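Folds abound. A case:
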Amino acid sequence: MVYLMKAFTVITLSLVLPFWAMSAWAHAPLLDCYVEAEQIKCEAGFSDGTSAEGRKIMVLDAANKLLLQGVLDKTGTLMFKPPAGEYHVTFEGGEGHSVTLYSAQIS
């Protein structure tokens, strides 16, 4: 009987844990920024297709000084004039959900 209970536990965990692990990653933040018409266009969202409307985008310089803060529109987009020098763009997708792109990664 103890053997059957252990076997049941192992089988149950092997079936449940992969789905639990996938659900933890199912809501990952996504960010892409690129040059469009002499501005930087950033598009953000979540890997499960959830909208990022109303979420913050911050543009910071190399010393982490806030240069610009904006909110994503209904399409998950924010456009801004590129600042001079090195900078990075951070998408704040909620608790534990942020992603950063550096100016060298934006083309």
